[in-house]
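ping. complex inputs:
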Amino acid sequence: MSKHLPILIITIPLLTAFMMPIAARVGIRFRNVLMLMAILAINIMLLSLIPEVALNFGTIFYTVGAPNPLAINPEGLAFPIRIILKIDGFSLFMGLISGTVALVAFLYSWKFIKEDGKKTYYFILMLLMLVGMIGLEFTNDLFNFFVFMEILSISCAALVAYETEEKHPPYAGYKYMLISAIATSFLLLGIGLLYAQYGSFNMDYIHNEMNHSLLDKMALIFMLIPLAMKAGAIPMHMWVPDTYSEAPAPVTAMLVTASQASLYGVFRLSFSLFGNPISSISINYNSLGWVIIILGVLSMFVGVAMALVQHDIKRLMAFHAVSQTGYMLLGVGVGIAVYAAGDKGAAFESFGKVAMIGGIFHIMNHAFYKGLLFLTSGVIVRRFGTRNLDKMIGLAHRDTFTAVAFIIGALAIAGIPPFNGFASKLLIYESVYKFSPLLSIIAMFVSVLTLASFVKVFYSAFLGPRRDDLIHNTEPISAGMKIGMGILCVLVVLMGLFPEVVIDVLVEPAIAGLVTIR
Amino acid sequence: MSDFFLYVTVVLLIFLGVVALLYKRNLIKIVLAINIVESGINLFFLTLGYRPEGTAPIFTLAPALSDLKMVLPTPQALILTNIVIGFATSALMLTFAILTYRNNRTLDIFKLRGVEDHE
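pong. complex structure:
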C-alpha cells in the first residue's frame, strides 16, 4: 500500500471523480461524504510523505508499471523508458497547497453552490482539477506534464463557465480555454523540440544530456512563455480578470492554485530542466534570471496599478493576484540571477537563497490568503447581488465573521506583521535589496498600493450604516463556508506567527529539490 | 529531402494557424485556427518519429535483427493522445461558443468586447 502511495495520490481523486454520478444516485449526502473522504485521504497521504521527502530532504521516484516501482532504476536500463513520477520537496510543497485549497473549496461549495442537476458535475470537475494539479506537480515526464496540464485546463474552463445560463460566464470560459489551448500547443511544440534531440521525455535524462544548442533555447522559449501566460504574468495577463471574476467563488480560489501550478512549471523548467549552472556551456542562465525578474516586476506594478482603478470587487482581487504572482517571480528570478552570476558559495548563500525562500514561501501564502479573500468575495457578491463596489455598504453589521476573515486576508496580502504575507515579503525585500535596491523599493511601493486598494474595498463593502434594503440574499452563511474560511484564517495567522517552522519543514526542502545538481 | 518539406509544412501550418488566431473575429473560426495549430504540431511529431522504409512498431511483426528498421512508437502514441485532447478542447470551446451566442446574440469578438465590464 505505502509502496504505491505516489500513484495513489493521483488515481484516488481520478477514480472518485467518475464514481460521483453513481454516488449521487445513492444520495446527495453520500456523494458529498465520499468526496470529502477522498480529499481528506489525499491530504493525509500528502502529509504522510513529509517525513521522508521534507524532513530528510529525500526524493521519491516511482516507476509506473515496474515490478518494484520505488527502485531508482528497476530494469537496469541505460535510459528511462517508463513513465516516472518524482516527488521532491518542491513537488510535495505544491501538492500540499493544492490539497489544502481543494479541501477548503469543497467545504465552501457544500452549501454555496445550489443543489441542482449540475452540482454532481461540478464536483467531478473539481476533483479533476485536483488530479491535474497534483499530477503535473508530481510527474517527471514532459509529455505527462502536458497531459495533466490539459486535464487541468479543460476542467478549469468548464468550471469557470459553470453558471451557463448567465450572460458572461460562457464567454469567460471560452477565453480561458482559448488561452490554455494556445499555451499547451506551444508547450507541446517545445517538448517536441527536446524530444527531437534527446529521444526521451524524462526531465532528469534531458537535464543530464542537455547540450544547450540553439534548438534548446527555442524549446526554452516555447515552454517558458506559455507557462508564464498560464501563470498570469504581465503582459500575458489579459485572461486573469475575466476568468477569475466570472467563476463561482470557490472555483476562483482553486483557479489561483491552478495558476500557481503553472508557476511551478516555470520554476521546474528553469531549474530542473534547463538549469545546469555548473557546466560551462549552459544557456545564458543569468539572462533567464533577468527575464523572470522583469516579468515579475512588470506583473507586480501593472497588476496593482490596474487594480486601483477597478470598481468590480472580483476583478480588483484578480488584478491583485497578477500583482502577487510578480513577487514570486521576482524572488525566484533573483535567486536564479545570483546563482548564475558565478560565485555559488557566498552570494547565493547570503541572499540569493533567501530570495528564493521568500519567493517560494510566497506561493503558499498567496494561495491561502488569496483563496480566503476570494471566498469572502463570494459571500459579499451573493449578499448584494452585484460585484460593483459602489453599490455595497455596511455588510459588517450582518456578517461579522466574513468581515474578520476579510480583514485577515487583506492585511496578509498587504504584508502587515502578524500575518503570513509579511513573513515572505520581508524575506523578499531584504534579499532583493542586496541584489538591486531599486527592485526592492518597487516591491515595497506595490505593497503600499495593495493596502490602499484593500482599504477601499473594506470601506465600501463592510463599513457604513446598515442598509437592509440593499441586501439581495439573506440566507445565513452555512457551517461549511465558515469552516472553509476558518481553516484558511487559522493557517494565515499560524504561518505568520511561526514562519520559521514552515520554512524549515517545507520551503527549505523545496529549494533543495530545485537547486540540487545531479 | 522529404523530411525538409515536411518540416516546412509544419512551420507553415503553425504559422497559418497563428495568423488565423490573430486576425479572425468569429469564435468558431478561432476554434478552427486552434485545430490548425494542433495539426501542425501533430505532423511535427509524426515527422520526428518517421524512418524511411521502417515498419510499424509492433513486437510480433518485427523483422529480423539485421534489417530492423521501425518508425518510433512513442511519437505516434503522443499524437493519438493529442488528437483526443484536441477533440475535447474543440468540443468544449464550441459548446462555449454556442452558449455565448445564445446569451449575447453574437459571435463577433469585437462586439463581445467589454462584455465583462458592465454590471
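Chain A has a mean pLDDT of 89.
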